[in-house]
Fold each of these.
Amino acid sequence: GIQVEQSPPDLILQEGANSTLRCNFSDSVNNLQWFHQNPWGQLINLFYIPSGTKQNGRLSATTVATERYSLLYISSSQTTDSGVYFCAAPRGAAGNKLTFGGGTRVLVKP
Amino acid sequence: DAGVIQSPRHEVTEMGQEVTLRCKPISGHNSLFWYRQTMMRGLELLIYFNNNVPIDDSGMPEDRFSAKMPNASFSTLKIQPSEPRDSAVYFCASSPRVSGANVLTFGAGSRLTVL
């Protein structure tokens, strides 16, 4: 099945800093999603981004499907951005079953 | 919409007991997923339903686990008998059927502790 790897595993940011999280996947995909798990455990869908670039407030994501990676950008980080960021890609052509990466744990310090 | 609703939020039980976790997907979503999250293994897909029919249960760890979806608004995940290694957070997620893409919306999770 597809392999999904994220880097870095941990990230400590000073409030206001910018950062980039990376997700590499082993096969071609038609569905790539980014999630944020907040400190209370809730998983929130941030982006559905099989290709191209999307922006949502201070967050943006870019997927380069031909090179099998996706990037999540956090700009002007805030303490509320803390948590774990996961990317997920589908197993198989159907695109219905997502395999999650190991996550990037982000801590934003005030 | 209230989102994906899971219950109970927390469950503490003793080894050997039956555990039933419940999920109400978002109305109109045709696909429902059960995931398990542990420190060691991360987020794992257990089973997936489409239009109430189980499509792939290859992630279900063993026969002690079973899942049902009797109608479009309700699903259960049952563990019988439970074991300490089943301790984890169990998430339910649903998605609309959008031309091959599935944007997942997760519930808040059910944290299970088996003593």
Amino acid sequence: QSALTQPRSVSGSPGQSVTISCTGTSSDVGFYDYVSWYQQHPGKAPKLLIYDVSKRPSGVPDRFSGSKSGNTASLTISGLQAEDEADYYCCSYGGRYTSVFGTGTKVTVL
Amino acid sequence: QVQLQESGPGLVKPSQTLSLTCTVSGGSIISGGYHWSWIRQHPGKGLEWIGYVYYSGSTYYNPSLKSRLSISVDTSKNQFSLKLTSVTAADTAVYYCARDVGGDYDYVWQNYRPDYFDCWGQGTLVTVSS
């Protein structure tokens, strides 16, 4: 069970859009629509942003959106804001009652 | 609003057993459809799923930790616990407990498939050192 692959870092200026990819395999991301995304600020617990590929929990701004194509899921942050600077992790159900996280991406707001 | 709180020793000696408890408040651990989970994060690194327990006692473990891992639930105390044996410095991490919201029901495994983590504890740092 290998970690899902994410870019180490992405950056953008305030107001721009950034997209984070999350690449798995046909046994996890590609097979199940159980992909979720989490935001983690330094020293804090992760916070749920997106679940079931593209659904947003109540209270999460609609600037955050998710999608999936094949074995790759994506998180897009539109209208980037200073408070979006954080680490982001994807997670997928891996079958046989296992879950696997992505390697994590640091988002920097320039 | 469900809240989770980890507790346990912050320092464990090598070769000993790491034991942590997660106390759930604001909701019942026997609510169907949730898996109670442990996740860890090595210093400066990413998240690693450790395992799940369902209120019935059914457990599901990360294959890489399975031989050393035990997760249990105490419904009378609304708590679930983690035990990791034969620890080394590589087990030094922040340990989080979290609630996983189940997805579709799997009739073969007779349980809800794990889906996403909606509630997290604040995390507790466990250092393995002599």
